[in-house]
Amino acid sequence: MRVLGVDPGLTRCGLGVVDGGKGRSVRPVAVGVVRTPADQDLARRLLGIADEVERWLDRYRPEAVAVERVFAQHNVRTAMGTAQAGGVVALSAARRGLPVVFHTPSEVKAAVTGSGRADKAQVTTMVMRLLGLEVKPHPADAADALALAICHLWREPMRVRLAEAEARAAELVRAHKARLAAAAKAAGTTTKQDETGARR
Q1: 141 is known as an active-site residue
Q2: Domains of the chain by range and CATH?
Q3: 52, 68, 107, 144: which one is catalytic?
Q4: pLDDT tens readout for residues 99-148
Q5: The whole model's pTM is what?
Q6: Half-sphere exposure of 167 (CA within 13 A, CB side)
Q7: Annotated catalytic residue: which of 7, 52, 144, 156?
Q8: Alpha-carbon span 47 to 43, nearest angstrom
Q9: I want to staple 7 with a disulfide (CB 3.0 to 4.6 A). Which of 14, 101, 114, 176 is the partner?
Q10: Are the C-beta atoms of residues 3 and 149 closer than 8 Å to each other?
Q11: Where are the alpha helices (DSSP H) in 19-75?
């Protein structure tokens, strides 16, 4: 599977494409950053991000898109900008029928480093090691985008299997309740018939 990982942001939006192979093998395909001027109109900045994401989708043709979920930030303005950029990416992917999954920063850190509290340096180091990179992706947004793609490749199969298991369990519960209801109804009908016969 090929995944486009996106670390959304207005000033810097990290993009990283990773191919997943057998087991947990991963291979880097492309990495980069979309930059927009801070003094530019918000709509134009979002358009610039959308245009570049569209180019990446056309060029690399990923099968899924993984976006960092805005979790908690003290700076509300920064959080809003990050969420808006992430929304633009999700919209571009959805228009192509691509699945979009949002991963929290702690999920990404845990998947790549084994610790949900790892810092950016640790994430970058592990991304380089996992992908066999000799040069550090710069800035950190680029490394984070690659980490998102890796996280998705490793977590999504497990999430899908879990969802399928939950769906099967729910279906078994529905079938069991239906059988109980049918049995109760049949028992009630038999009781009424017995009562009617007794009165006669």
Answers
A1: yes
A2: 2-161 (3.30.420.10)
A3: 68
A4: 999 999 999 999 999 999 999 999 999 999 999 999 999 999 999 999 99
A5: 0.80
A6: 6
A7: 7
A8: 6
A9: 14
A10: yes
A11: 42-60
